[in-house]
Amino acid sequence: MQQTASINRQTESFNKQPSSFDKATSFSNELTEHLNSEQFIHLTHSDEVHDWLEGTYDFNEFNSGIHVHGGVLTPKKNMDCSRMVDSYVNFIVLLEGQLRFSINNHLYEIPAKGGRIIMVSIAQESLFTRHLIQGERCVKVAVKGIEKWLRQYYKKTVCPAVFDDTVRIWTLTPEIRELCLFFLKQHENSLYQQLHQEANALHLLAELWRTFEQHSDAQTHNVLPNPTHAFTQQLNAIFQPSWHISDLAKALNISERTLQRRVQEHFGLTIHAWLRHKKMKYALHALKHSTLSIGEISYECGYKHVSNFTQAFKQYFDCTPAQVKE
């Protein structure tokens, strides 16, 4: 504990505090635009991107299952980009600027200070929100996909305590910096370049995981404990996509007002917003992975008319259910 306290003093500019996503403003007096993460991804590939962002941001998914995305961005507007995420591990390499994000109702503000490696380990379904501030330049690369190797390698051995801490922070090494700079460059479209990028993605993930292994026992990082998961587990255990607020409150044997308060305290958003996230997440999964028709999914999500479901889905994902089904 003494060692951890010392580390916290060394990284005193790292900030963690409660946050709220239902306010009209987040970090300044300017209006904040609220987007779903799928909308943000679509935005970066649309003709409207120059009205929102300056710079470039790329998303790459490799055959190995590794996802690498990143770039140099300066937002032209304040934006909160949110999504409900399942359990996952995400490595973020912050090269310049400041990273601001929230997990449920906890806000994290991390300055680059010469370069940082941030490991985000989310044990169970949570609301993840990235906060982008107008005029605040950020250079970063994010890497996901270690879960495949965790499942294969640790079948008969003890898996490291990946989820003991929600957020870990380490100083960026020269080798990892060099690997990240590779992904910030433009590459020609050839088979060689695809293989080269895949090899570097594996190399980068391996180096990031080695950083975790080197520090997991020594506790030489900024330690932040996981928030209580009991309430999330309760909600997920009873959730039905067709339900309304009254159904949830009845199943939990609490009043609607108490349910609203607890969701606000835990996730930092209203129960209406939480239900919307959950219903749309269910709808997207059903459209991609089930044989249900759009009408059946609409009914499952509690909509009386398919047109209302289609409108809500398009507002959330920036595409129609039919486009997902194609």
SSE layout:
Layout: H1 2-10, E1 15-18, E2 32-36, H2 37-44, H3 49-52, E3 53-61, E4 67-75, E5 78-85, E6 88-96, E7 98-103, E8 106-111, E9 116-122, E10 126-132, E11 138-144, H4 147-153, E12 165-171, H5 174-183, H6 191-216, E13 224-225, H7 230-238, H8 245-252, H9 256-267, H10 271-289, H11 294-300, H12 306-317, H13 321-325
Helix pairs in contact: 5-6
Percent range for β-strand residues: 25-35%
- Calculate the mean pLDDT score and round it: 85
Q: Considering the protein shown, what is the CATH homologous superfamily of the largest domain?
A: Jelly Rolls
The structural domain count equals 2
> Strand order within the widest sheet?
3-4-11-6-9-12-13
- Helix and strand string, N-terminal first? HEEHHEEEEEEEEEHEHHEHHHHHHH
Class per helix and strand makeup: alpha+beta
Question: Gap between N and C termini, in Å?
Answer: 54 Å
State the CATH architecture of the largest domain: Sandwich
Please identify the top-level CATH class of the largest domain. Answer: Mainly Beta
Shape: globular
According to CATH, the fold-level topology of the largest domain is Jelly Rolls
Per DSSP E runs of 2 or more residues, the count of β-strands stands at 13
Low-confidence stretches: 1-13, 18-29, 223-227
> What is the share of helical residues?
40-55%
Number of helices: 13
Largest sheet: 7 strands, antiparallel
Radius of gyration: 21 Å
